[in-house]
Amino acid sequence: MKILVAVKRVVDFNVKIRVQADGSGVNTDGVKMSMNPFDEIAVEEAVRLKEAGIASEVIAISIGEGKAQDTIRTALALGADRGIHIQTDDVIEPLLAAKTLKEIVDREQPDLVMLGKQAIDDDANQTPQMLAALLGWGQGTFASSLEISSTHVTVVREIDGGLETLSLKLPCVISTDLRLNEPRYASLPNIMKAKKKPIETFSLDDLGVAASQRLQVITVEEPPHRQAGQIVASVSELVEKLKTQAKVI
Known about the structure:
By secondary structure, the chain is an alpha/beta fold. The protein has a single domain (2-246), classed as HUPs (Rossmann fold, 3-Layer(aba) Sandwich). 29% of the residues lie in helices and 27% in strands. It has seven helices and eleven strands. It has a nine-stranded mixed beta sheet with strand order 9-8-7-10-6-1-4-5-11, with helices on both faces. A two-stranded antiparallel ribbon has the order 2-3. The longest helix is centred in the first third of the chain and has 15 residues, at 37-51. The mean pLDDT is 91.
């Protein structure tokens, strides 16, 4: 089985986001970047399948500027076998990402495509679903458990009412949720080995994909600051404040 895993370079989740002064976006100057956390889970699951003898090859793919190769190298250090970089300076919207991934899927013919359920920079949660639709494949989104046989994948996913179990025919698209696994740390020897693993580079033109922007960001704002709490002396005072100030009762 060949597994294709998509990874995205995003602002590290530990970094406090700074909004541009003109409200046009997020300031990334001098900001630490890393692999999208949900994509780390997808890489980990793919590597575990390879270690279990279910998968024979894991390919990491990323779309973006030249520095996206750093994210691919991270995936290679975690256990992926080779990388594919689609180099572009265009804004990568979900549909463009899905169309680009489809072209790579058509070339590589993987048995399974894995992605994080969403990227923490835009929280769009659209690319896996769009990719499955473009390919005409089954999809298992928000996967919290996977079992793979020779012809099918059993996916357990969390829904509002509890757990839902799906049986998907291979090939298919899987998007990973937080409960699926705990990603490993890359060891120093594996980081050194990753430098020698191959990364193919393509442009959007090479794949015949036209970069077109369909979404317009009107403004980006920081969330409102949380107000300080108040200490009350009695239950009656609490009730009064809930009535007159908070107006919730």
